[in-house]
Amino acid sequence: MYEFKDEYKTEIAFIDEQHKVLFEIANEAYELLKNDYVVDKYNKIVELIHKLQNYTAFHFKAEEEYMKSINYKRMFTQKVEHEAFIKRINDVDFSKIDQNQDQYIINILQLLNDWLIEHIFSNDKLIGK
């Protein structure tokens, strides 16, 4: 479902490779949603959230260090958006996951979809220019 296409490339190799990992995490969430053989998805959802928390922190730090190294003019805006995303993913209420597990996965996918499409396509691509 989620595929890193040429249109998402920033032309900065390490950033593109890291973005591919974010697409892979989104794909894992999608596959979990569609898996009717796993009745209780709670542990897998928690694992996905932790993976997303850890990877985005790593990725944003690397991206921000790169922007700083090239004196990127929109770095502050990027940093604010990164912090907002991290806050959203860190504010997960794990007690609510069990209430409707599939809906929770859909919420994660919506967050990732908005981020991958909007942020990477609209903002991160500008770093490479």
Characterise this structure:
The chain is mainly α and 129 residues long. The chain has one domain (6-127): Hemerythrin-like (Four Helix Bundle (Hemerythrin (Met), subunit A), Up-down Bundle), CATH 1.20.120. Helices cover 72% and strands 0% of the residues. Helix 1 (13-34) runs antiparallel to helix 4 (101-127). The radius of gyration is 15 Å and the shape is elongated. It starts with 12 loop residues before the first helix and ends with a helix.
Q: What is the C-level CATH assignment?
A: Mainly Alpha
| N/C terminus separation | 28 Å
Secondary-structure class: mainly alpha
Query: Outline, from the CA principal axes?
Result: elongated
Taken as a percent bin, the fraction of beta residues is: under 5%
CATH topology: Four Helix Bundle (Hemerythrin (Met), subunit A)
Task: Please give the oligomerization state of what you see.
Answer: single chain
Mean pLDDT: 93
Question: Please, how many domains?
Answer: 1
Say how many strands there are.
Answer: 0
* Radius of gyration, in angstroms, nearest whole number: 15 Å
Low-confidence stretches: none
Largest sheet properties = none
- Give, in order, the helices and strands: HHHH
- Which architecture does the CATH hierarchy give at level 2? Up-down Bundle
How many H/I helices? Answer: 4
Secondary structure: helix percent: over 70%
CATH superfamily: Hemerythrin-like
